[in-house]
Specification:
- With 492 residues, the protein is an alpha+beta fold.
- 35% of the residues lie in helices and 28% in strands.
- The protein contains 14 helices and 27 strands.
- The strands form seven sheets. It has an eleven-stranded mixed β-sheet with strand order 3-9-10-16-13-12-11-24-27-23-22. The chain has a five-stranded mixed β-sheet with strand order 18-17-19-20-21, with helices on both faces.
- Helix 2 packs across helix 6.
- The protein is globular and about 80 Å long.
- 40% of the residues are buried.
Length: 492
């Protein structure tokens, strides 16, 4: 299996696109801007989904499902939200096709089947969910309402890239209702912390937790919490967001409740989501010129066993040992695949699993049977060792944890090496061009300055870090007074 991947140092974007396709994660579809997620890619997403779903349920959330279509009048109800997504909306105007009288082999839209009200294909579900919540919430006893849905959404993007930006993508979106402002703020921050924990413990991606500036906030939110990650090309990636929506949606959809004092009040809201974009973060944080590098906590197979043999007799003897190891590993909760296909040579298989990022590979040949050993190869360091057959299960368990930790530490070191504090605009531009990464700099707090920096450098304010310390300084562009530093970067 020839890899022939473009080197990251030559063309990072091309390397990424080739890797997604060659590692069998996804491909472009017949629908412009939409992707087909292939079984291997979907297996990784399923693992992400399972872990996140568990975390959501542990924090008291329940899953539900809401319609794909949103009546236009509902979509328009919250003005900022509608305005923010208007340019990306797909709209359904008719509900039937008919045969073209001039060409019976073609179908045309039936002009008599025009919808009374146009339907928006959801770019996000606040409108349909809040119109539903109006019927669910009457009293403080109905609160908090903690709902999540796993769904697909459509945002008609013009420039697309597999996993990072597609016209349709998979995600989860949480939508919660609360009796007080403080409760809703705590929920928004809690879920941002859940995302950060997931990113660091499962994706092995270190993230910075922060708040978005007003111009970068979710449309219709009063505050947006986020987690920002750094990719190997020095560009930032927004890996998750959690929004404090205030009472904006409750007022737009008239969602009121009777307080325990018997008064009427609008509820306080949050929404939060992560998407298949996390697949892009996973690929770009760890992978190398040989292919994917997957953290064990999310790899579809944590271990693959490849037999090296000549003839049926040798294969039978190797299979006996391999199957024992498979059983022992599975008893320890380790996912393993025994690849005894006779359609490909061992070298081809080694190459394939290296490309697909399987964390550990076990090779067993006739000589190993004699010595009662196996060869163990690590994907993250590309190193090999021989291990006694009886010690292999304990060694594998130890190495999987070591690989998970190593990937996180390596990514963290890269981020630390690409985190620069600057005080002048010349420094800012120089670092951006020569090194990239996160740049910590003072900003005067105005949207005008933020936009000007973006025009001049293509760098945006990724976030105001949660652990940001107040300190007097001067804006990196205007020299106006500033109270704290913010993080800039070029971003996906």
């Amino acid at each position: 299996m020839g890899k022939n991947l473009t080197k990251r140092s030559e063309d990072y974007s091309k390397w990424y696109n080739e890797l997604v396709v060659k590692a069998d994660l996804a491909e472009n579809s017949a629908v412009r801007g939409c992707m087909v997620i292939k079984p291997y890619g979907f297996a990784i997403w399923e693992k992400m989904q399972a872990e996140l779903d568990k975390m959501f349920k542990e924090t008291g959330h329940q899953n539900a499902y809401f319609p794909l279509f949103v009546p236009k009048s509902l979509f328009e109800a919250e003005e900022k939200n509608a305005e923010g997504f208007a340019k990306e909306c797909a709209v359904v105007t008719h509900y039937r096709l008919k045969t073209d009288p001039d060409n019976p082999s073609k179908l045309i839209v039936d002009p008599n089947a025009k919808l009374e009200e146009e339907l928006i294909v959801r770019p996000t579900s606040e409108a349909i969910i809040w119109s539903t919540y109006k019927g669910w919430i009457q009293s403080y006893r109905d609160l908090p309402l903690l709902i999540n849905q796993w769904a697909n959404v459509v945002r008609w993007e013009m420039r697309t890239r597999l996993f990072l930006r597609t016209a349709e993508f998979l995600w989860q979106e949480g939508h919660t209702a609360h009796a007080t402002k403080q409760e809703a703020m705590e929920e928004a921050e809690l879920m941002n912390n859940v995302y950060a924990t997931f990113a660091e413990n499962f994706l092995a991606v270190p993230v910075i937790k922060g708040l978005k500036t007003e111009s970068e906030r979710f449309a219709g939110a009063d505050e947006t919490f986020c987690i920002e990650a750094l990719m190997q090309d020095g560009k930032a990636l927004q890996a998750g967001t959690s929004h404090f929506l205030g009472q904006n949606f409750a007022k737009a959809f008239d969602v009121k409740f009777t307080t325990n004092q018997g008064k009427q009040d609008h509820v306080w809201a949050t929404s939060w989501g992560v998407s298949t974009r996390l697949m892009g973060a996973l690929i770009m944080t760890h992978s190398d010129d040989q292919g994917l590098v997957l953290p064990p906590n999310l790899a579809p197979y944590q271990v693959v066993i490849v037999p090296i043999y000549k003839g049926e007799e040798q294969l039978e003897a190797i299979s006996q040992v391999a199957n024992e190891i498979v059983d022992d590993l599975r008893l320890r909760g380790i996912s393993v695949k025994y690849d005894n296909r006779d359609t490909h040579k061992p070298g081809w298989k080694f190459n394939e699993y290296e490309l697909k990022g399987v964390p550990l590979r076990i090779g067993i040949g006739p000589k190993d049977l004699e010595k009662r050993t196996v060869e163990l190869a690590r994907r993250d360091t590309l190193t090999k060792e021989f291990v006694a057959k009886d010690a292999v299960v304990n060694r594998v368990a130890l190495l999987l944890k070591e690989i998970q930790d190593n990937l996180f530490e390596k990514a963290k070191k890269y981020r630390e090496d690409h985190y620069t504090t600057v005080d002048t605009f010349d420094e800012f531009k120089e670092i951006l061009e020569s090194k990239g990464g996160f740049i910590s700099a003072h900003w005067d707090g105005t949207a005008g300055t933020e936009e000007k920096i973006k025009q001049l450098t293509k760098a945006t304010i990724r976030c105001i870090p949660m652990d940001s310390i107040l300190e007097d300084g001067k804006c990196v562009l205007t020299g106006a007074p500033s109270k704290q530093r913010v993080l800039f970067a070029k971003a996906y």
